[in-house]
Amino acid sequence: MATSFAQIRSGLQVLAFATVLALTACASLPPPTAELATAQQAVARAGDADADQYAADEVSQARRALELAQAAMAQGREDEARSLAVQAAAVADLAHAYSRRAVADTELAQRRAEISQLRSRLGMEGGQ
């Protein structure tokens, strides 16, 4: 019995699909350079927001995770580097938020004190 063109075509399709599937499974993610850059920016942003003063533990943790990510990248452990870089960015963003909140709370307290002083002056002036 002769092999038909349809059978050959079907076999080639299966072979092509298997090849694509194998290549996809073997393909790795690109190096985590974007994640490392994002983490570096997040740590810098936290530092610029005075996180060393207002969120020292968090910014320290973020810097350490970034250092570990960079070391893992240098040693070719890209998956670990990616994970650590994402962690560093997240913790740095948290430190940034804590710092911004502390600054806002300080400014709010100052404004409330100013309002209290103004009310006190107005009360004293109104009584004279």
From TrEMBL:
<dbReference type="InterPro" id="IPR025511">
    <property type="entry name" value="DUF4398"/>
</dbReference>
<dbReference type="Pfam" id="PF14346">
    <property type="entry name" value="DUF4398"/>
</dbReference>
<feature type="signal peptide">
    <location>
        <begin position="1"/>
        <end position="27"/>
    </location>
</feature>
<keyword id="KW-0732">Signal</keyword>
<feature type="domain" description="DUF4398">
    <location>
        <begin position="34"/>
        <end position="110"/>
    </location>
</feature>
<protein>
    <submittedName>
        <fullName>DUF4398 domain-containing protein</fullName>
    </submittedName>
</protein>
